[in-house]
Amino acid sequence: MRSRTAAVALAATITLAATAACAPAQSGGSAAADDVQDGTLRVWLFSEVTQDPKEQVVDEAVAEFEADHEGVEVEVEYIPVDARSERFTGAFNDPSSAPDVAEIGNTDLAGFVDAGGLMDVTDAIADWDEGADIDPAVLATTEIDGASYAVPWYIGVRALYYRTDVFDELGLQPPASLAELEETARTVRAARPELVGIATGGAAQFAFLPYIWAHGGEIARQDADGAWTGTLDSAEAREGVAAYARLLGDDICPAQTCAEWGGNASVQEFVAGNAAMTIGGDFNRRAVDESAVGDRYAVVPLPGVEEGSIAPAFGGGNHLAVLSSTERRTLATEFVQLLAGKRYQQAMFDAMGNIPVFTDVQADVAEQVPAIAPFVETLAAGTAFVPVTPAWSTVDAQGVLPTMVQTVATGAADVEMATADATAALDAAFGAQ
Amino acid sequence: MSAPVVARRRPRVGADVVAVLVAGVVAFPLYWMLLSALKPTTELMSGDALPYTLHPTLDAFARVLSVENVGRYLLNSVLVAAVAVPGAMICAFFAAVALTRYRFRLRTTLLVTVLVAQMVPVEALTIPLFFLFRSFGAVVPELGLNHLGSLMLVHIAFSTPFAIWMLRGFVAAVPEEVEEAARLDGASGPRFVRSILFPLVAPGLVAVSIFGFISTWNDFLYPRTFIISAQENQTLPLAILNFFKPDQNDWGAIMAGSVIMTLPVLVFFVFVQRHLVSGLAGAVKG
Amino acid sequence: MTATHAALPAAGGATLPAAGGAPRPPRPLLSRRGRGTTTWARRWEPRFYLVPAVVVLGGLLAYPLYQLVVVSLYDYRQANVSGSAPLRFIGLQNYARLLGDEAFWTVLGNTVVFAGACVVATLAVGGALALLATRLRPWSRTVLFLASLGAWATPAMTGSAVWLFLFDPTLGFVNQTLTAIGLDGFAGHSWTYDKWSAFALVGAEIVWCSFPFVMVTLYAGIIGVPTEIQEAARLDGASTWRIALSIVAPILRPVLAIVTIQSIIWDFKVFTQIYVMTGGGGIAGQNLVLNVYSYQQAFAASQYGLGSAVGVITTLLLMVVTLAYLRALRRQGEEL
Fold this sequence. Notes:
Shape of chain C: flat
Radius of gyration of chain C: 25 Å
Mean pLDDT of chain C: 80
Oligomer: heterotrimer
Strand content of chain B: under 5%
Order of helices and strands of chain B: HHHHHHHHHHHH
């Protein structure tokens, strides 16, 4: 019996050793030495709900670029946002199939840089005459260890949408603090039970994060040596979680339906006329405008804890990046500078309503279009961001934040327990790096 | 040929009624899919889920068909299926012959391996297969990533184990006497397999091929993983996937796309229906 | 087709592979025919026939499976894949991490219960309808089969979407109908809020798209049962019920074995339906099953080593379940 066990152990060891000897594949260095000046430049952009306006602007830029660069053809593919991680993974792993330029979400950046997929464009921004006007807070979201890996293209920031007709009918004022918001939402639901007080969901993490930040909490903290530690179990963060979870109650937005909503589903409810308020982005404005409630809504910054303050919003947005495997470094950089330049950011604003990243262009468009004033005001009040670490993609994929909110909202756990679990999950993800 | 006794009972109206009711329930989601594809967008998004529409429109179909290159996607899907399904059937047929009409060492081991091969979650295999095909691509570009060849090979591999498993029955059903007779007539083993066994098993092959066809036709995981940037090599499911949008899915187009995708399979089925049942029974029934 | 008819007079009652009990291979011809000039060929024939399948399966399934096991022993994340971080062999740490994770065991439990229920329900529905189908006139049978095949042919992604659509809390046809007939409690009722209600809904969709396989195969099996045997039994005075039980059922057992094993394999590996219908695992991950869990925890998060470990565990689990079932069959005298 003993010898048999020993034999099994030996066999297992040999197997392990044998498999260890044959390691899994690695792509190896992907930086291309070439800098070709002609041929096809492949570009990935995200597909949009209403894609035509975006396509028109991009087509214009492409035509201009092709006219300026003889022998160059720009091929643009619109990829679904939801499928982007697989597409990019594939591109990083097989450089020969990768595009030269790509649009990326700002939360993707750290992970993509860690994967070695993006080219350092610090110099390209420094040498660029328009580079100096980029909002420094936005530029910071492109930086890892002091180097920029993308050019910011536009900003996504959320604010509070509300129904003017409902508020007028009930004699309500737009809330000036988070406590007032909760009270207002409750009043609406009591008076108009067919509406939810505020449409917001357990999985709408960018609507939820301002609650943490407004209460003085943070997702995680970075110490001097760069290591991250989860801080969702701090007293401040717990207050924020509790306040947000109170919105997901029968008297405001019943957990039965609201717990599973993400940000888009929440806005969708507002668009469908089922909600008195919602936390939506500047990028949702067009959809609301075109809906049945399009002429009966207004937007204010999401208030903070103090009366009259503004809650720090999540500084969302997309960048244009050059992939490190490109064989057309110069062309790719020039194309990024064109499409992310002031002229085309203005054009993108006109077409899509995306807020530009240049401070001067921002001021211009706020003057031209008063409707975006609340968003610009929110930006000016200061935004916050998720931890800039490759581990964030893990946290995101594992749904740590939605799970925390949902367990509290559904009563499966109390705030203490849920935040402790979430903090442990964060630390596990950070520690695995 | 008379029906078996269990099935012998005079057909009763009651059974027919039950069958039609069940068929109605089963078909209802399909009806809803078609209905949603035909409803105008405003009606689809309004609060009333009416089981009919007074304003049918082909807008959603037009949206799907106006996707750039959709004809190319369709062609690609057909090409992949046209190579992968027969390829898998050839592999499976010969393997089934070897595994059922011969006894040799490792026979049971191989059978169990075939079974185990089906148990691996395909989602987990994307990574090793990705690197495998990257290596293929370095030698023969047409079989590498970004090319249809990779999808064809992958689906041959995925369809074969189940096909072997199902085909064993048909191959075994051909009585030994037939083989004896063939041999007495001087037919060699390969000749028997080719000229006698193959035609006899053909209905079964057709029946079994529908499984491979459905899985190959509907797959979107592998095209999405393997066809990295070559738009001209994408397949039909990816065209539909494009209508799953970040802020608002275009349900009309998704349903229209699904109808378009389901139709060829249904046609294929109607075409092989008799073979399917007779094939699966491992027998030749008129 | 007609040629086939002519070629097969000997098949007589048209039989299922298993007419004699199990799909037993014909007697080994090699030993019977003894030695002759063809011996060498006879011995090598099956090996030649196996070549295409072995090449394809060995290269495209076995080798990647081996790679999967290898990857599961490494710390293998996106940075390691693209070569910007060194590979690190970590032995069984990925497995240790999983087995030490409470959430993993919950997911495993979910998977076993959920998949088990789906298998039973699929077999019950498919079996009942197969029996029903034998009593139908051709036209109604065609209607039933056509509807079923439609369900079968629908891509999993859109099938899930349609079901979700039908059961939408406010916009869904089901709730609106239930409310209209006076069940006001269903106004705005969410079918995916409660864990088991969500599982039931997903399970219904899975049964919907997988019973046709069971139904068609069993139906084919039933009509393939030799008439003569049944006639003989009937002449001996056996009741229909008795014939069904003691003659048809045993003959069907191998077919049943096939559909059971296939259902087990498919339902344990369910991915799309859960992913689409519960939004990636339900509220606070209450509806996670192994395959979705592995995708979410590992592949979407680019932790391939960990994800591969879950893949290996899923495969092992399926092997255990299937082999246990095969053993039970063998004890009853069946054979592969």
